[in-house]
Amino acid sequence: MAQDFSHRVVMIVAEGSNPFEMGVATELFGLARPELDTAWYDFELCAESPSVTMHAGFFRLSRVSGLDAVDRADTVIVPNRPDPENDPSPAVLDAVRRAAARGARLASFCTGSFVLAAAGVLDGRRATTHWRWADLFAERFPAVRLDRDVLFVDEGDVVTAAGSAAALDASLQLIRHDHGARTAVAVSRRLVFALHRDGGQQQFVEQPLPEVPDTSLSPLLTWAATRLAAPLTTADLAARATISQATLHRRFRSQLGTTPLAWLTAQRVALACRLMEEGEVRLDRVARLSGLGTAANLRSQLKRRTGLPPTAYRHRFAAM
């Protein structure tokens, strides 16, 4: 029997918006998920006018709801801006400010962070944006604590995502908040989108394009993800991949933008989070099952990566 869940997600669409981000939001929040046996979101698109031209004039949206839809939203998403040098309209900024004032959750995709920043709701907060526009963002909004290198930043009531594809990562994070880790994993599996990317992963790694794309890490990541409780080391990973540790480090850097140890730690923290979300309250057991070893290390890693100690994390995210 489906669980009782009522949450309205409204996405603001502007002239010239990128249809990819709109498609991500529509796919993740607008399509029913009967296979999950849980009530899903109410999703709505809105704009200043009922007809909106998308990026490069590819197509027009007709009969879009007005901005008053924002006043009914539990979560408001702002997409990328084609002209981040200029402020959005006063009507959009007022709608975002009203949503923030009444406690709605806010999310931005790509240069949508410029909209949230222009509305003043990111002042004093950590946020991210697309790497290409990071310098401009920092110049225009010095009161925002810009993190240039991550895929998304989760501040609880405000989530900002970097480039277009990071909208998928951030949206799955929102689903994880609302429905738990198992549901987020099920949705990612439906999308055939691997959850090997955590929010702290670098958003862009510049490298020469090989003649044949190197996908050799995928089997290793899958293998390691099922053995996080074991005392895996970089040497163990290299031995499993039948390569040297130096080669392993190069592949992790080129494909994931991180080190093997940092990736392992991130996966272990993610597993610890899932265990706590599912009701495990014994920190020693969570630390052992996730491979973090001790409750002290669990507290340290969780605080560093989520900003929350275990008690606060359980209070915010554990299933009721």
Quick recap:
This protein has 320 residues and is an alpha/beta fold. 43% of the residues lie in helices and 10% in strands.
Your description of this structure?
The protein folds into two domains: 184 residues, Rossmann fold, CATH 3.40.50.880; 109 residues, Homeodomain-like (Arc Repressor Mutant, subunit A, Orthogonal Bundle), CATH 1.10.10.60. The protein is built from 13 helices and ten strands. The strands form three sheets. It has a six-stranded mixed β-sheet, with helices on both faces. Strands 3-4 form a two-stranded antiparallel ribbon. It is globular. Helix 1 packs parallel to helix 5 and helix 5 runs antiparallel to helix 6. Helices cover 43% and strands 10% of the residues.
